[in-house]
Structure formats: C-alpha cells, structure tokens
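Support reply, case 0932

Customer input (verbatim):
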Amino acid sequence: NKEKYKDVQNLVLSVLLSSSKNLQKFKKLALKDIELYGLVSSKYKLPNKTAEEKQKRKEEINKALMLAKEPPFELLVLIKESINTLNSIYKLFNKNLISDFAVASKLLEAAADSAYVNVIVNEKSISSSDNIDSLYNIKTVLKQFLIIETYFNTV
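Our regenerated output:
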C-alpha cells in the first residue's frame, strides 16, 4: 500500500494469486508422485517365476513407470512458470527483499534438480522397444531443465 509501489500493486496481487495457485499445484503433484511411487513399488512385487509372469510384471512395471514420470515432468513445467514470474517482478521491488527472491529461487532450483533426476531415473528404468515417445519426453525435460539452469546461473 505504499505510494511508490502503487503502479505495481495490481501486478503484485496477480503474482500472489498465481503463486498461491502454484503452491496448491505443487502439493497436488507431490501427492500424485507419492501415489505413483506406491504403484511402481507394487508392480515390482508381482510374481516373476514363469516366463509369462516375468513378461506381465515387466509390462506392468513399464506402465507404472510411464505414469510415475509425469508428476515430476509437470513439476518442471510449473517451476519454469514460477521462475518466469519471479524474473518478471524481482527488479520492481525494494532491494532489501532480494534475499526473499534468492531463497525462492534456491527452493525452485532444488525442486527442479529433484524433478529432473526423478524423470531421468524413471525414464532409464523403462524397458521398452518403443522408446521414441520416451526419448522425446526426456529431451523435452532436459530442455526445460536447461532453461531453468540458465536462469539460476544469471541470478
């Protein structure tokens, strides 16, 4: 409500609303990731004594892993959006708030690192002869991650 920030007050309110919505999305993705980890774990416990059981188990694990890589991938996209938001506003504010922006950036960086590793691990665990979609997804994730890394190296 300070006079010198009156011009950006609507932007601030918009960013606060957007950030609040993103926080809810982060929480939902974390819960979905936990749920899908449970699914993947359950598939590794399937019987695998006969050739048919082994094949069925492998297929079920692959299906679960394909699902499990989606929340961290979505998280990377959401992190990129959050970084863009931070980037659009941090220069508009009191320089004493730079530590708040730095902490937010570091938290987003840690989340991006974790999400990236999660996607890569799931991707490498998928044993499929039709890996074209998977390879495309991994390249997309890498591109998202590199955009994020570039941002953190410039702040």
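We compared this against your earlier run and they match. Two observations from our side: The mean pLDDT is 82. Residues 46 and 57 are 6 Å apart (CA to CA). Please reopen the case if you see a mismatch on your end.
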